[in-house]
Give the backbone structure.
Amino acid sequence: MRRGSVIGPLILIAIGALFLMRTLVPQIQIWDLLATWWPFLLIGWGVLRLLEVAVQAAGGKPLTSNGISGGEWVLIVFICIIGSTAWAVHRHSWWSGGPWRGIVADMGENYEYTLQETTASAGKTPRVVIEAFRGNVRITGSDDTAMVRVDGRKSVRSLSQKEADDANKQTPIEVLSNGGQIVVRTNQDKANGRLRVSEDLEIVVPKGATIEGHGLYGDFDINGINGSVDITSDNAGVRLQNIGGDVRVQLDRSDIVRAVGVKGKAELRASRGDDLELDDIGGAVTATGTWSGEVDLRNLAQTVKFEGQNVEFDAVKIPGQVRLSGSDFTGNDVVGPVRVSAQARDIQLTGFTQGLDLDVDRGDIELRPAKTGVSKMEVRVRSGDVDLALPPQAKFDLKASTDRGELRNEFGAPLEAHETDNGNAGSITGAVGNGPEVHITTDRGTVTVRKAGPEDEKAANEKPEKPERAEKPEAQRVEN
Amino acid sequence: MNYQGATLMQAVRGPILLITLGTLLAVDHFGPFPFWRTWPVLIIVFGLLKLLERAVRPEVTQDAHYPGGGAS
């Protein structure tokens, strides 16, 4: 008789309908609804069973001995356990920060609010501290103000307008003046942890300001500040322009860090960085962490230390450009001593001076020292071809060898190729004048030594085109 | 009829308990009483249903006169 119950098929239909709703009408918050209303599922179930029994009794049919079978009770107990857990989570929002947070926060709608303009008088050279918040900020230095002025928009992702309005009231933006220090506080942590509050801030500061920005998730855009800039964030794109002081950026994730026109030092660190673009930096540059995207360094007036994914690189300055893109490393007009250490990179260096120390596991190497003269070079390659184009009038003392590979002496006399192992190994040696030592070794690969021709000079003098960089849409960052 | 009534009560017991459970949980969510304070209601309802079952089964006591009949 139990077999005739409508409950089983109904449960199947309900589960199917729920999943269908989730796929067809994703804005409906199935899991929230379930976590809230599941007790009525039990009531409905009981009522249906009761009706069944009534129908059976009225029809004079034999009754099932017990209205709800043991198996059903087991299922009910499971539903209770899962339901009350979901409810507790739903009510206490344990999951703020947990893996569920994104799922919960993604449900609901965005409610937008305009921030009331908030100001604080600051003096000419204030220190402006932006406390950790979620969202984007654009900071602009202004000559004719002694105020810090904040406005912008706030968005609250919430299931209901009322909840969003409450959250908006709980998170007023504050600009607090404390001696020479101005604190910008969004109070986002005051809102229910389940809601996602984020802000797009526009801040105007006196030109002499120093900025200390903390972020959780969102972009920093800073322009025209004479003081220094210090940014820490879990996930940020950072774009800096015309900064008078030092720049320090510490990020966990980042899609881009760009600094153009910095008078002081630049210290950049991203644990999981992507693109890095530095142009016209007056002080020493240190970039560490992982920069797995496009790296573009140009006009760096002082020492450069770069550590990327399987690449390390030092130079005394870069009047020209160094680019890392994919597996390519290209440098032009670099003042050394230059040190490059890489695992798998094809390296092309032109117009470098003051010495080179190059160590590569796998990759083809193309070297064209500056026309003004060859400097001391120490090049080691595990596997890859080496092509060395020397200026015709340069002085040097060369020893280039391969353990397995061809030798091509296109420079001619006074260099000589000494082939061993039936032409499968050997070295090219010789000296022109009393010049610096040039040592090249490859374990496996062809070594070519030639005179730099007009096409090499042309390539060395021609600065590589600035790459066309498609801006990534900021709004479409992925929550992690 | 009486035998039928007794089995009806038995059949109805599960669904009624389930409805009670659901109601208590709903009250826990939306009402003033948390479930940890209302759960004894389930025992009371269970007891009441048992009582009703007895009430609609008077001949069980008659059955007890027969040898081998249930003494309940």
Summary: Chain B is about 75% helix and 0% strand. Chain B touches chain A through 23 residues (CB under 8 Å). Residues 2-30 of chain B form the longest helix (29 residues). Helices of chain B lie at 2-30, 35-38, 40-55, 59-63.
